[in-house]
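Example 215.
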Amino acid sequence: MKIVILLGAPGSGKGTIAGRLVAHNSGFKHVSSGELLRDAVKRQTLAGLAAEDFMKRGELVPDQVIADMIKDYIADVKGECTLLLDGFPRTVVQAEILDQVIEGSDAELQATVLMEVADEILFERIAGRRTCPKCGAGFHIKTIRPVKDGICDACGTGLVIRKDDNPETVKNRLAVYKVQTVPLIDFYSARGVLKRIDGFGVINDIVERVRQVLI
Ligand code: ADP
Ligand code: ZN
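Predicted structure in complex with adenosine-5'-diphosphate:
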């Protein structure tokens, strides 16, 4: 298995881009740490109970909680594929845990793709974001409209505004990103695996930019 880390601020488009890559190439698999956590919260599992309050405040959940979920996910992946890791790692400790997981498996880190988007754009994107509570698909009221207003194209479920997508929490998530996740840029850059992508523009163009660096 190859692993591609998608790195970038909240709203930088990691999930959207991953969704497009998977839709067009069955060799890709996508896992979103946020989705795994939201699902765990919904089912009120032990991990979900541990994560819920952190997520509501826009803070990171404890490293070990999410690392264990990702480890289990990676262990269950069958066959050859390129796994798009969206939202993990988000701290240096998580990156070190991932290193150990990779070392103990036949997986290899192919690249870390950094989605670069200006802060004003991030706020705009998150303010208009609508999410499918069932399958996790993401939409935007202006730029990524579903075929039927308010309904998920993929599974027909009514779209919602995520609890942590309000302006106050978004501000906090962005601050947390800058302090806790930005150090990963140097971490992966020092290893020569960092690919910077201009994350602003038309989705198809951005997807193409990402595809180019993964060839
Ligand atoms: P976004 O990228 O838009 O912030 P996510 O769906 O990736 O949204 O994450 C939502 C929330 O889930 C985060 O604010 C955080 O509380 C939690 N979370 C997701 N991934 C991680 C992670 N790797 N480590 C810690 N917390 C995480
Ligand atoms: Zn859906």
